[in-house]
Amino acid sequence: MTTMAIIGGGTMGADIAVAFSRADCATHIAETDSRRRDHLRERWHGNPTGSPASLPVIHATQDALPWAAIDIAIECVPETLPLKRDVFAAMERVARPDALLTSNSSSFPISSIAEGLATAHRMFGLHFFMPAHLVPLVEVVCGAASDITLAQALVQLMRTSGKVPVLVRRDLPGFLANRMQHALAREAFALIDAGVATPEDVDAAVRFGFGFRFLAAGPVLQRDHAGLDIHCAAAATMYPTLAANVEPAAVLCEHVARGELGMKSGRGFYEWTPETIAAERARYEALLRAGLELVRAELPNGNP
Predict the structure, then answer these.
(1) What are the backbone dihedrals phi and psi of residue 183, each rounded to the nearest 5 degrees, phi first?
(2) Among 131, 161, 186, 258, which residue has the fewest nearby CB atoms (within 10 Å)?
(3) What pLDDT, on a 0 to 100 scale, did the predictor assign at position 2?
(4) Strands (E), 76-214
C-alpha cells in the first residue's frame, strides 16, 4: 500500500500529507476550499517532502482523486459526524473494494462514522497527533465491525512509513493516548481549582518532572525502573484522593464561558499576542524536532 488519499486540506490533512510524502508515498489531497488549496504549498514550505516525485498532488474535489490507484484514504474533514458519514459513504462508492478507509477523528468512534455502511470491516480510526509531521505516534482504532487482520496490515503500513503505530482494539471515547492525557488533565485542573498550584507550576511539574522522563520510558516501563512495590504502595495512598469528577473542572469551564480559549482568542491561562504566538510555536516545534533527534534510533525507519 503506497498510494494515499487525504480528504481535507486543513492543518491535520496538510501535515499528514507531509508525513507520507517524506516516506515517498504517492500522496493525493482533496480540498474543496480554494483558499486552503492556495495555502497548502505554503504550509508545506519548510517541511520538505521526499523525492520530487512524491510531492503531494492537490485536487479540488473528493471525486477528482484517482480512486483506482488509492490504497488507503484518510478522512480529515471538520469534526462533524454527519459530514464524516457523508464522506465515508462517498468513499465507499468510489474506492476499490480492497482499499482501506480511515478517519483521523479525535472524538467520533469509527463505529459511529461507519454505521450502516456495507464495508465497515475495512474502516478504521487512524488518529494522528498535532503536529502530525513531527509527532511519531498514530493510533489504529478498530470499530465493532473492523477486520483485525486488516488492522494489523494498517499497523505495518504505518510502521514502514516511519510512524510509531499502536493498535487500539476497542473503540472507546478518546481511544488510547487521549484517554490517558485527559486523565492527567482532570487531575491538573482539579489541583488548580483547589488552589494547590498555579497553572504555571502545574506545567512545570509535568515538563521538568515526570513528563521529562516520558521521553525515555512510558508509565509502565517507568514503574519497572522505580519498582512495582513502590508504585503499588504510593497508589494505595493517593488513589482515594485523586479527582474523580465527571464534568470538566470549574476553572476550565470559566475560561471557556468568558471566551478565553487560548491562542485562538488571545487569552487562555496565558496571555497571547501575534508575536508571542509566533515565538511560542517556533519554540514548541524546535523542542519537538530536538526530541525527535534524541529518539530517532528507536523509531521505525528512522522516522523520515
Answers:
(1) -60, -45
(2) 258
(3) 83
(4) 100-103, 123-128, 137-142, 164-168
Sign for the CA dihedral angle at 126, 222, 304, 19 comes to positive
Look up the CATH architecture of domain 178-272. Answer: Orthogonal Bundle (1.10)
CATH of domain 3-168: 3.40.50.720
- Domain boundaries along the sequence of the chain: 3-168, 178-272
Phi and psi at 74, nearest 5°, equal -125, 115
Instruction: Please state, in angstroms and rounded to a whole number, the distance separating the CA atoms of residues 142 and 145.
Output: 8
What is the per-residue pLDDT for 302?
62
> What average pLDDT does this structure show over 148-177?
93
Closest CA to 282 of 134, 144, 177: 134
Structure confidence at residue 301 (pLDDT)? 73
**Between 257 and 33, whose confidence is greater?**
257
Q: What's the pTM value of the predicted model, to 2 decimals?
A: 0.90
Q: Which set of grid coordinates corresponds to residue 180?
A: 490517558
Instruction: Identify whether the C-beta of residue 243 lies closer than 8 Å to the C-beta of residue 184.
Output: no
Closest alpha carbon to 14 in 67, 97, 76? 76
Between the two ends of the chain, the Cα-to-Cα distance in Å is 17
